Please model this.
Amino acid sequence: MASTVTDAADDAAPSPVTPRRRKHRVGRLTRGEKIVVLVMLAIPVIVDLAFVWGPALASVFLSFFKWSGIGGLALRHCRAPGGLLPDNGCFIGGDNYTQAATNYPPFWPAVEHNVIWLVVFIVFATPLGMLFAVVIDRGIKGSRIYQSALFLPVMLSLALIGIMWEFVYSPNYGLINTLTGHNTNGNLVDWLGDPHLNLWAVLVEATWRQAGYVMVLYLAGLKAADPLLREAATVDGANAWQTFWRVIFPTLKPINIVILVVTVIESLRAFDLVYITNRGSNGLEMLSVLVTNNIVGETSRIGFGSALGVVLLVISLVPISIFLYQNFKRKAER
Amino acid sequence: MTAAAVSERVRPARASGTGRARVGRILSYVLMIGATVLWITPIVFTLYVSLRPYSETSKLGYVSLPRSLTFDNYRQAWTQSDMLHFFLNSVAITVPAVILTLFFASLVAFVVAKVNIKINVALLIVFTAGNLLPQQVIITPLYRLYLLIPVPGFLSESGLLYNSIIGLVAINVAFQLGFCVFVLSNFMRTVPDEMYEAAVVDGASLWTRYWRLTMPLCRPALAALATLLTTWIYNDFFWAITLIETGSRRPVTSALANLQGQFVSNQNLIAAAAMMVAIPTLVVYVLLQRQFISGLTLGSTKG
Amino acid sequence: MAQSPTGPGPHLSRRGLLRGAAFGAGALAVPGLLAACGGGNSSSSGTTKSGGSGTNISFGSNYSDPAPKSAFAGLINDAKAATGVTTKINTTDHNTFQNNITSYLQGTPDDLATWFAGFRLQYFAAQGLLSPIDDVWDKIGKNFNDAAKSLSKGADGHYYLVPLYNYPWVVHYNKSTFAQKGYEVPTTWDSFIALAKKMKKDGLTPLAFADKDLWPALGTFDILNMRINGFDYHMKLMQNKGAAYTDKEITAVFDHWRELMPYLQSGANGRIWQDAAKTLEAKQAGMMFQGTNQVAAQYATDKKDVKDLDFFAYPEINSAYGQDYMDAPADGFIMPKKAKNTKGAKKVLEYIGTPEAETSYLKGDSWDVGLATGLVAPTYNDIQKKSATMIAKQKAVAQFGDRDTDPAMATALEHAIQDFIGNPTASNVQSLQKSLAKQAKSIFG
Model:
């Protein structure tokens, strides 16, 4: 497997030393060429704007309305309460946001859980993946087998992972409780049902997958690191620990940023595992599930769900901006 | 489960740090072998449950020696749930979505990387950032949008993008475009400009430069991305459960959640169904792992 | 038996407006950017396709557990023989179906669908998502009593549902366990608690209990509320009309529940009701409070001895209300506004609304009770016979906590109850009550 990643890196860059001269592009465009460019861009750009950016902006717009999704939307203020059905499809300003923060019990637990998720990914899953990568990179015997095994969960869908782990966690029959003798009715440990435990249980599932992902990314970075650097460091008398932190790690900066961004985004997106486990209730509230439950659940609160979506949007713009800044700054430097 | 891994995490490094390389080596083995066992346990355990009759595990629990192993659960899950139908749905979604994503993404990537227009960087930013948004940010309006857009009957039984295979293809294409544009444009940038200058001298049109010159050079990247996209789109859960209402139109990954409700009294059937759903990704894993990994790392190491 | 949860009230003008919208066939000229989203709903079927000569319809079904699924398939088979209409059944898992109902009805629903009676029917009817089926009721009206009729009507007085069956929420037990240990059926709260205590001493889980799916524990809330505070108060609370979650009446409900807590199977939030029913089947639990539609059906699914299963009405708590009320939800069938083959669909509905059809369905269903007047299906077992008499004796029946109130409020209440189950302290109850009252204000406001 070790060689695989090297190959992959080679595939990716047929000639890593190619001079990149941005300005030296193929000359000016003729009119015909301009039309061709327009045609080439038209569909993808429309698709991207219509299905991704359009809805993202519409989320912001809808978040100022009270709307059950039934009937139309009108640009008027909501009427006073009363009637079989409350007023609907009307403008209520920032009320959805106030309601979310002050009168929606799952909101703050969800924020807390998203933060815990992020912290666990950063302080546990990522270092674990990095450790795997470093050990494998040092070329111990059978590293190909280890890498394949650790990578396996990355291939599986999160929904499937959630289902598989239910067998491990099942209170009466499951692997853990049987092995630890907690499978009789008196002393059951309800891993996925107990609100004090289930977030951690699900985080083990998430880490199980994330660590393999991080490992693969770091392995690619480590392979790409110049072996001469390592040799030079060893000659200077640095031990493996020092070599890694002082010489190798700094060269991994681009990868670190990618992993940081991936980690934050994955923590915000966390959905499938908790949804498959208990639809994100009872200790597994996450922002993503709250958004979903408010629009596709029996309770259809489009405006409110949009407001929760906007909260996610605002938070996610932070890592996205970091990524873009780093990425395009580097490009500009070239 | 990972507690063992934690305690061992620090030691090997420190050990080698003091020069006891041998101890470090041994600890490395302990760590990797332990982790490997932990990592494959859930999958092997599910496989084991799926091979045992319900009557047996309901008495003895899942952790017990088997009296009999059988493929009955597989047969039953396959026939009772119409699994073939769901697999075909997945194919009908995944194949067009992968092809369209790669085609559209390569068009944009080519323009961004190799054509001198003013909005290059802006385009790239729009696509890249779009891919990083959590799906839930856009689902609410998207869902309303899907209920609005009519689609001719021969493409969608529902007459709308909502609840149709084509709608699912569309959102997968739109959402994956960003990543592919990013990766492909970085890749195309590594093609020397001199080649294009020579092509222009030879009178090659813009389209020829894209289709005949650039695309063949991108084959490794396209192959890697195709592997990655196939797995991701096949594994998609969120779009399918929100944008497809009718159970029978769902792809197999999200249909599994429905089966969980149906087979609630017989977990062994769920285990069998889960293993069957995993098979296509396991095939990719065995045959195309290299492509998959290079696809992942393309996005992170270059650019 | 049941009363319409929302009586006629001062909301006629608003309702008239809604009806206008629903029947306006796309003339719903609400300005605004996304007006067409909703307008499309009413236009697509309001004017067109009133016929559809085809003899094929599709039927969205939530009968997903194996036993009811096959009973439903039997009914549809007989419907085909009687009407000549071929029906394609689209089955969705029961919980998923319910969660998706709003999008389902607005999206591309089938020609007919399974749904619930009561406020939950009125809510969707009032939003113009269902087709009135008064012409069907012209033909089947004679088969049902007034209670069943009022359950099938929207708040506008039009019919929207053809009911099939209902079932009582009662305390189930195994006859053999009671005989063997000499337990007696309790009729009062004190004897109920005493029995539970005894069972615990005998090594049984007194009450099997599960709430992972969020709705089952609402049953306990409902029955305690109706036993302690009566039916009218319960309905006022559900409708947010003159009762609030901060009332001392609700504190009393939770106080009784806390008293019961030690006898309820622990870890309920992580257990599906099917697994709780299995502990009753295995005689590890002494009793289980749940609908016969769930417990008896689970016995049938697991091929356990339904003959050993028996039940009693929830014990009396407040003598003013005795054992006069219970949840006895009715299930039936609706025709979505967007149905395509309305002609075929109505034919099938007309068939379903007959005693023959109910008898045909009940051949495969040994736990529900048909709703046609005076129906005693030849296939009735003891459970069904007892259910029928017991429901008939009630002064009023409720439809169930998540059917009698606004869906958003039901969700809020369900989550509060899960929270309570995880932390059943007086102080937590107090904060939950406050939070519920506040949410009610925002949801109904």
User: Anything to note?
Assistant: Chain B touches chain C through 21 residues (CB under 8 Å). Residues 267-301 of chain B form the longest helix (35 residues). Residues 3-50 of chain B form one domain. Residues 1-17 of chain B have pLDDT under 50 and may be disordered.
